[in-house]
Amino acid sequence: MSAEVVSDAVWALLALAAVALAVAAHLPRSRIETVLGLIRRIEAHPAGALAVLLGWMWLGWHFFAR
Amino acid sequence: MTRRHLAVIAGVTVAAGLAAWAALTEPFTAGAEAVTGLGLFLIAAAMALRWRRAPAGPWPVAPAAPLERWWPWVAFATVVVAWELVSFFLGPRVDHPTVSSLYDSATRSRAVRGACFFLWLWLGVALVRT
């Protein structure tokens, strides 16, 4: 099995895990925080809100401009 | 039709227009920097307006979520960052792609690039509204 196949498989598994976590978080009596809940909690502090905004800005610049 | 409906239609139209523009640009060009910069400016301005209009007083604090509700996400983020670092340092990219190189491969299609840009703007709007 080539390194490329292993690497792609790991990324695919991680993507599936992200979807599974997001879905599990919305199940009744779930013990996992939702993505929105995480963001709200981080944004509950001014420094966290600024960090989230800067992270979003970096994401856009990195992927679309550079 | 209410003012809120009109605002949503206007916002989606602007976002779709920017996404279409972004789909026609290539990274490392003035066009890509211009459209991304415009998106950054619009969301940052909306965020600044929201903070300015917030009532005076202490920052509203959300109820604390117990750590047991956080750890799955922390563990997941740790694994993603670790695998990203492993891929970054192992190289070459064709054998060990990073998130950025996966994105580059996926966005050879202009339609996918435009959709990604639209999603990024939507995420920015969601952050402003959170």
Give the SSE layout.
The complex is a heterodimer of chains A (66) and B (130).
Chain A: H1 3-25, H2 35-42, H3 46-65
Chain B: H1 3-23, H2 30-53, H3 67-90, H4 99-106, H5 110-129
Helix pairs in contact in B: 1-2, 1-5, 2-5
In short:
The complex is a heterodimer of chains A (66) and B (130). With 66 residues, chain A is an all-alpha fold.
Explain the overall architecture.
The complex is a heterodimer of chains A (66) and B (130). The N and C termini of chain A lie far apart (33 Å). The longest helix of chain A has 23 residues, at 3-25. Chain A has helices at 3-25, 35-42, 46-65. By secondary structure, chain A is mainly α. Chain A is built from 3 helices and no strands. Chain B is an all-alpha fold and 130 residues long. Chain B is built from 5 helices and no strands. Chain B has helices at residues 3-23, 30-53, 67-90, 99-106, 110-129. The radius of gyration of chain B is 19 Å and the shape is flat. The interface between A and B is large, with 37 and 47 residues.
Throw out a few tags for this protein.
heterodimer; A: 3 helices; B: 130 residues; mainly alpha
Structural class of chain A: mainly alpha
Q: Secondary-structure element sequence of chain A?
A: HHH
Q: What can be said about the biggest beta sheet of chain B?
A: none
> What fraction of the residues of chain A are assigned to beta strands by DSSP?
under 5%
Largest sheet of chain A: none
Total strand segments of chain A: 0
Largest protein interface? Answer: A-B, 37 and 47 residues
Q: In one word, what is the shape of chain B?
A: flat
Count of DSSP helices of chain A?
Answer: 3
Number of β-strand runs of chain B: 0
Give the ordered list of helices and strands of chain B: HHHHH
Described by its quaternary structure, the protein is heterodimer
Gap between N and C termini of chain B, in Å? 25 Å
In terms of per-residue confidence, which ranges of chain A show pLDDT below 50 for 5 or more consecutive residues? Answer: none
Radius of gyration of chain B: 19 Å
Q: What is the number of helical segments of chain B per DSSP (H or I, 4+ residues)?
A: 5
What's the average pLDDT of chain A? 89
**End-to-end Cα distance of chain A:** 33 Å
Shape of chain A: flat
